[in-house]
Amino acid sequence: MSTVNNQLKIQRKRELLFNILERQGLLEASEADFDRRRAAAFGRVDLGEGAFYYPRSFFRAVDTVCFLGGVEGLAAKKLYLASRSKLPGGFTGSSHSLGGWQLMETGLSYENYLAAKDLLPFLAPVSLRGQRTTIGCGDRLGLAGPGHIRAADGYAISPVLAQQSIRELTLTGRIYPEVVKDAAFAVLQEGYASGYGADGDHLKTLADIDIAVDAGMPMITLDLTEVMNPAPADWSDEAVASAFDALSDTVKTRVLSDYSGKTFSLGDESITLSEIEAKRCALMYWKALDFSVEVDARLRSRRGDHYDLEISIDETTAPTIPSHHLFIAAELKRRGVTVNSLAPRFIGEFQKGIDYIGDLAEFERQFVVHCRIAKAYGDYKVSIHSGSDKFSAYPIIGRLTGLRVHVKTAGTSWLESLRAVSLHAPQLFRHVLDKAYRYYPDALKLYHITPDLARIPKAADLSDAELASYLALPESRQLLHVTYGGLLNDPELRPQFFSFLQAGEEAHYACVRDHLRKHIELLGVPRRD
Question: What is the CATH number of domain 123-410?
Fold first, then answer.
């Protein structure tokens, strides 16, 4: 009997939702009407008793209206389709008839995303190769997308809303199809039809690249760590010369004729590669460059010209010196690799979730050379990895790149979800902080950070109102940043954490929006006309 009563309650709330939408003219509105309404709408409309809808999510596909809402509370957010005639196929869900309307209520699954993007093509991620300024918005929770969209909206910047590495997927228990569909439904919720990217981040194998491409991700960040050979950087000249002699005649001829003793002009300055440095570069990078060619060909065969290949050489122990960047860039151009962006390892420390550590004047002196190399060898974007919160360096980066840049963030959005917890659920935040210390030793096996945890004040000594100060302290930011895997998989914390974010989604979105917008504005990104 209780099951029957529950079904009747759900049906009554469903009727409430659709009756209100019909009275408001939302089901009969034209796409132009929806555009006007989106310009004036914001957030979620709650109708009481667990029924709600998102006014910016209404779109018309021929004779079908699509929108996001729900009748059983925020944990049961659904995609709704309404039509006076026949509903489109391909969706999995429950169908109903109500007041002359054919209705379908579907879950936010990857399969329903695939059907939805056939109706609303803007839901699919796209190549952002033609966009000058882009920002990676890693969303480890699958819930921060609306905040990312609100941060970027109105600025001359394009967001990569679906961005995850294999490491992040492993720690969060997610898969690439889930990452893509979560971003797509955030796009629908916010009514954002300006195009967004999706990045299979720091991938090292063709198998992982294929998985990301299969899920619909147009951007691949190729991490060359495992095919580079960093050892020759520390070899003597004699050891370099001896190892170079063992390479094939083809490679030796190319390196000696094109690079050895050659001077390369970069506008106001030039870079000369000595014979020994050219040989050193060949030993360090030739195999990685061969693999880059293979990956580029694979992406072109899978996606035609609609892909963004980023070359990552930043996961090394030593900075990428300009002459090495030049060698890599020149070889990629000679080989015809379609490089959209390239991430060197810059001087100083780009540690997770905190500001730049190092001499900013020296960073600027070297960074301008990296920018000139990028301009001269394909005009690709310089990519800033671990770009979260590098506020002191952003004005330099924006100015010297001319905003032809990709900034990659991820953990900072996770930290902003914790800021929302600290502000609105202080007891839960105290539990999170306590458990972060327990998960920290394992996290250090995966992340390079150097905080002095002794500088972090004890939570017991702070009032609830002071807890948000943990998100301003570099040491506690890093502690919380890298322990996300343990915290998100903690059987006690996980349900409480996600329950809070669902109930307090607007507080979460606001924290993410404000923080990411600070990144965008410090880069100097202008407002759109």
Answer: 3.20.20.70
